[in-house]
Write a structure and sequence with these properties.
Length: 500
Amino acid sequence: MTAQISLRSDRYNERYRPQLHFSPLMNWLNDPNGMVYFEGQYHLFYQYNPFGHIWGNMHWGHATSRNLVHWQHRPVAIPAGTVDHSYVFSGGAVVDFNHSSGLQREGEKPALIAFYTHSGDKGENQRQSISYSLDGGESWQDYAYNPVIENPGIKDFRDPKVFWDAPRNQWVMSLAAGQEILFYRSTNLLDWEFSGRFGQHEGCHRGVWECPDLFPLTTEQGETRYVLLVSINPGGPNGGSATQYFVGQFDGAQFTPCQHETRWLDWGPDNYAGVTWESAPGDLDRRLFIGWMNNWQYANQVPTYPWRGQMTQVRELTLLERDGSFWLASTPVCENRELRRQSHMPVPGQLHAGESLELAGGELLEVQLQLEDLAEDALVSVRFDNGQGEFAELRLDLAAGQFVLDRSSAGEDKTGKDFAYSYQAPVAGSLLKSMDLRLTKDASSLELYAQEGRTCMTGLFFSDAPLQRAEFRCYRGAVRVGAAQVWELESIWVGETELV
Ligand code: FRU
């Protein structure tokens, strides 16, 4: 039996509780899983421990949304094995729109099919399994002949993500195996044939490869390429876990990169294991992404209670051709505008070293700045502080050619695991005199989307008192603020109900 109740006012109001990001009411969350759009609903599943506040007992938790901003909690969709206690690890889901599998009932809705890794509780015997839903994602049942891909003797063999490869009329699965990605293909979603591998001598190899996602994107100029996301842990550019991407061609069997430089989807410490939404062909004309806003380095220690784990904002991915190569760009989905309340327009103008511009007050903020006439050695920042000595800051240092996300003064390290540092990202492409910056600031996180979304940085912080004041500063050189707009935002949980 389920019942709808209104959220009590003490829920989703705890210290550090994200107000602009999805988090479970209580207990542990890690990777987003099985995102699929069907009949007007965005499904979000996630790695969930319903019995504890640390990683373990992996189930698929479930939430749905009609606008990618407000979420409804749903009952656990796929539980850990009741008989053999096997854990349900990460994976993807598809709409079986052309009835490839034969699992749907005659004349009824297409089946939603979820692919995931069954694993022992110590991570042993990783194999790929299926569950399916015949009621649009409300209830799920295990496929009778699991696993669909047995473990071939590879220790790390997980995180299947499937998409419809329209040009070849087939389904394609990417799967992480050690430090490689394996590709499989199928016509019925049940029987899978190995078709190719990717990874040797490509990208970063300082850790295990996880959570792949392969999909086509087309540039504004009409060039289509395939993008392959690969999460890696550890080995991120700023330590711990992070997600790299490759751009190339896919012939239905093999992926061939067309550029070889290692590229990071997000240079901040806290965007991991993200993948994108699937749908029936033509139902979603955007590539939508969500990541786990955390890092394995300290994920089990972050000081939040009674939940632990939150997602990034939903982002739209696009492929841009700039400076002679392809770039994957991320920007927050336009639906977030629904959260805008009070708007501020700080007066634009020239700033010299030592000068600052008050942006707004408030804990939940969206900031958009267009900087012009940046001096070659300019050092500028967007700084969120609480007047009590704590601040989190995003700096652009043109002399060093980098962005810096600095949380070293946003409260002491409450994880005991090397948390309170600053993190660097190189400015993408050639250095310019102008720069676009977008920031989203929540109760315990900061997200930067710069250079049309080519450079992103996402970071958590846990200050002792809320960071309520936003300011733009010029530390060195000079800059002209061409346009500035700031919004105070409303919580996504206002007026929400939950299923219990
Ligand atoms: C990534 C990951 C996946 C795995 C899951 C287990 O964060 O390690 O590779 O499927 O978490 O919860």
